[in-house]
Amino acid sequence: MTENVDAQASFAFEGNWRSYAPIAFTNLFLTIVTLGVYRFWATARTRRYLWANTRFIDDWLEWTGTGKELFFGFLMVVLLIGLPFLFLQFGAQALLLQGHTALAGILTMVAGFTIFYFTGVARFRALRYRLSRTWWHGIRGGSDDRGFGYGLQYMWRTLVAYLPFGLLIPWSMMTLWNRRMNRMSFGSEPFVAHGRARPLMKRFLLFYLAPILFVLLAVATAGTFGGYLGGVWVTSNFPPILRIIAFLVISVGVYVLLGLIALAYYAAFLREAIDNLTLGGLKFSFEASTDDWLALFFVDVALVVGTLGIGAIFLEYRHWKFFITHMGAAGEIYTDQLMQSQTRTDRHGEGLLDAFDVGAF
């Protein structure tokens, strides 16, 4: 059967915060009572709700992952990677105390590069796991690539990105996205990603050149607050209270402005990446503008601050709804020809993801 897909109607989210609230508060309570252990089952429970309320074309998504998978995945990482890493760290400190500075430095570098490498592996395997546990029309996704080669790609592309003063960061981010997605599939169809870094450069340069603004703000701060600027003491006739207020406003403004510019860059990155992603006869799109991201961000802040942190339990719900609401797919899909994926499925979950606290995307 051939489905002609309209981008506007391809994705829909039917959940609401009222039906999600009992899940969120129960997850919070049980996570506190179990000193954090329940969070793996909380994650699985949340995803089951979010996936079950997400429609793609003519059927609902299904999450088949379990909290047990996530928990044992985390334990495996702690045993296989965490303990050796601690051994390297304590070994380096012991060697340093004994005067073996060079050897201690080598062990420290080995520990650092180990974490660096497995951060890349974690990103790959987290996406692979999530696709393998996402079902639609009785078909799942996945990848036969185990991500170890991607870890090396992540290392050298990230290092190269920072060599020319960080100017190749957009290239690194986009090529890593393409490489990761091009190793994934859903059913018998592979994903094809060919995002470009060039369209991102204007916003990235805005973020990159922001420190110049910081210099100007430093001049303004010195003029109002008083202090050394270029070896010269700058005095001010403003009352002390006004100097303090001006200093705080400028300092906070710098961080807020830089964060907003970074958000604008990420919005452009995600649009470029998803707009150049295909699956068989489907072409995906992402319509969230910078204004949409800013609205999401400020409401998130208001929700968390206004509830003294309790509102954070709704952030995952809000972010998933935002993502699905702005997703689109257009083209044709042959559901009767879409075969089940033959890719390998892991028996454990996102242990590396939890250990290194990184996102799948």
UniProtKB/TrEMBL annotation:
<dbReference type="Pfam" id="PF05987">
    <property type="entry name" value="DUF898"/>
</dbReference>
<feature type="transmembrane region" description="Helical">
    <location>
        <begin position="241"/>
        <end position="268"/>
    </location>
</feature>
<keyword id="KW-1133">Transmembrane helix</keyword>
<feature type="transmembrane region" description="Helical">
    <location>
        <begin position="20"/>
        <end position="41"/>
    </location>
</feature>
<dbReference type="InterPro" id="IPR010295">
    <property type="entry name" value="DUF898"/>
</dbReference>
<feature type="transmembrane region" description="Helical">
    <location>
        <begin position="159"/>
        <end position="177"/>
    </location>
</feature>
<keyword id="KW-0812">Transmembrane</keyword>
<keyword id="KW-0472">Membrane</keyword>
<feature type="transmembrane region" description="Helical">
    <location>
        <begin position="102"/>
        <end position="124"/>
    </location>
</feature>
<protein>
    <submittedName>
        <fullName>DUF898 domain-containing protein</fullName>
    </submittedName>
</protein>
<feature type="transmembrane region" description="Helical">
    <location>
        <begin position="205"/>
        <end position="229"/>
    </location>
</feature>
<feature type="transmembrane region" description="Helical">
    <location>
        <begin position="293"/>
        <end position="315"/>
    </location>
</feature>
<feature type="transmembrane region" description="Helical">
    <location>
        <begin position="70"/>
        <end position="90"/>
    </location>
</feature>
